[in-house]
Amino acid sequence: MKLLFSEAPPDYARYLYPYVVWAYPEPGETPADLFEAGFLPSLPDLTRFYLGRQLRLPLAGWKPNSENRRILRKGAGWQCRLIPRAEFDDTPARRASWLAYAAERFHPGAMPPERLERLMSNRVISHLLQFADLATGAELGTVLLHLESPRVAYYHFAFYDLGCKDRNLGMFMMTRAAELFAASGHTHLYLGTCYSERALYKTQFDGVEFFNGHRWTAELDALRHLIRTPSETHRLDEAAYVALLEGGSLDAAIAKGFRVALPR
């Protein structure tokens, strides 16, 4: 992959000069290679990726824990179907319900129609996971996915009936997806970014990992520290954070860092 560093607003007083790391796939590479390196899709045609604090669940040998099983029991009578995008009945009514969900769940304009169209018409969405109530036939929710079997199942966006909060429908959909892709032999389920307390629900799966800038790790105390502790400096200059990393030293982090051949 080729890397570009796109400058972000600096904090000159604290000597913080941020760059967003963009990755561009090279011939012979697939999106799975970039997911593995810690990158997420930045453009829906999968021509550019960005480095971020994302989560993934290793699926080899994964089994639901007691909390996961409790959530799955709440969905008794709910069915899910995996549908290739080309075979999905992408109706205006369905899109309208997804947009309404995004406006209510997040804020108006969180998912403009143009953004949804870009997703649905590009490579980043390869499949959809559709949930329904078997007893009534009512649609409950839909997950937009990118699958590169067997290496990647990317849980990109989920839209669901907010009236089912008492049965934890949103968590059920994610847990059922983990169960489904573990059974189908996928190696990892990628769950998106984790930058807030609100996103920590994704860590309810045993073995979940986050990308910390130089490696994938299951050190969730370090993740919670990043979310809950404001920083005045670079995180790798912060002794309390470095102590939570594997090896507990900056040398251990350097040993796992990116190795780049500079252009001549």
Provide a descriptive summary of the structure in words:
There is one protein chain. The protein has 264 residues and is of the alpha+beta class. It has two domains: 1-52, no CATH class; 54-211, Gcn5-related N-acetyltransferase (GNAT) (Aminopeptidase, 3-Layer(aba) Sandwich). Helices cover 27% and strands 25% of the residues. It has an eight-stranded mixed β-sheet. Helix 2 (66-74) packs across helix 5. The longest helix has 15 residues, at 169-183. The chain is globular and about 60 Å long.
* Overall pLDDT level: 94
Count of strand segments: 12
Main beta sheet: strand number and arrangement? 8 strands, mixed
Poorly predicted regions are none
Approximate shape: globular
- Assigned CATH superfamily of the largest domain: Gcn5-related N-acetyltransferase (GNAT)
Through-space gap between termini: 16 Å
- Tell me the number of helical segments per DSSP (H or I, 4 or more residues long): 8
List keywords for this structure.
8 helices; alpha+beta; eight-stranded mixed β-sheet; 264 residues; Aminopeptidase; 2 domains; globular
List the SSEs and their pairings.
Layout: E1 2-7, E2 19-24, H1 31-36, E3 39-41, E4 49-51, E5 54-58, H2 66-74, E6 78-84, H3 92-105, H4 113-120, E7 127-133, E8 139-148, E9 152-160, H5 169-183, E10 188-193, E11 209-211, E12 216-217, H6 220-228, H7 239-242, H8 250-255
Parallel strand pairs: 9-10
Antiparallel strand pairs: 1-2, 2-4, 3-4, 5-10, 5-11, 6-7, 7-8, 8-9, 11-12
Helix pairs in contact: 2-5
